[in-house]
């Protein structure tokens, strides 16, 4: 096959008098699908026709039979509850249809808000859908918003970036971040320190891991002396923890925490203002990481640990369906729902395990 393809051009015969058709290739500055939809110019909301039909069975003035048939087919994916219009997602979750002003607020909060991670277009759109919002130009607007984001463009993955100076110390003197990750749920715990000594490591394992989540069955570390010493051996013997070490000079052996390190550093870089306040942004970066859907699991680490999604600040400003429903619940009903979510968490974890 390779030889046939290599000699294909030489087998083609063409007369000198034959016309050569010039093939013109058009270069798109953004993906083509991002240029399909244009902004409405009639001043009406994008869902105006859908809402009017669901509410009053009215068609747009001058609509043809083809337009009417298309509208009837389209409204099957929407639900009108009072004055609020919802879009049915593929898994039958109801997404609140928002207008242009609310969409801009959501974009800003999700991308560069308090817990914003300056995520890429797919992750950004996925997070908006998970929170419970929808508008027809969502992916287009995400493309435009990310393209205008200065920090995203600076810190986007690029192997050809020039060398830069090392990041300075934080204002409190901290230089290092100690990171631990749960291989199953991808939940990350991290804390900053001036130096990562053996005493710091043992204290971190006791305070941030054992006292919060219980005793782990095993811990995997690299071969640093601060992670492999007598104090660590005593700690593992005390709590019956199996301590494993990754292969020297092979970071892939402990790839999960290496990937978490890279992602957390990227998030902090995009969130900091003065570059000496990065230690203050660590908690917000961790929250953003924990509430982002991971491709390997198909869920957020937060939902796999607690059985429910975290309420983001934008859901308080523009109440999502879950926030609205929760506000109407009595305390007994709310507790029953929380209990059901805890019972169903094993199913979520099993689904994640099957996907992985």
Automatic annotation (TrEMBL):
Integrase catalytic domain: from which residue to which, for each copy? 147-309
SUPFAM superfamilies this protein is in? Ribonuclease H-like
Which terms does the UniProt entry file under GO BP? DNA integration
GO MF terms here are: nucleic acid binding
Domain of life per record: Eukaryota
UniProt-recorded name of the protein? Retrovirus-related Pol polyprotein
List the PANTHER family hit by this protein, alphabetically.
RIBONUCLEASE H, RNASE H TYPE-1 DOMAIN-CONTAINING PROTEIN
Q: PROSITE patterns in the record, alphabetically?
A: INTEGRASE (PS50994)
